[in-house]
Amino acid sequence: MAASRSAVFVQTAFLGDLILSVPALMWLKTEGYDVEVVCRKGLKSLVELWGVASSVYEIKKGDAK
User: Fold this and answer.
1) Sign of the CA dihedral running 28, 32, 37, 42
2) pTM recorded for the entire structure
3) Contact predicate 14/40, CB 8 Å
């Protein structure tokens, strides 16, 4: 049985930085990785729309209290 490959991609910067990450996310997906993305609050729906991740998690930066 082949080992599954997974990757967690953390991109909590702004929208432009997330857009620049799309080619890397697409490459991971085409290489058979199960990709999980951690992004800034409000960007989850966009990542889901792109279809480059199996799971997407949002965080609100600055809430580390």
Assistant:
1) positive
2) 0.84
3) yes
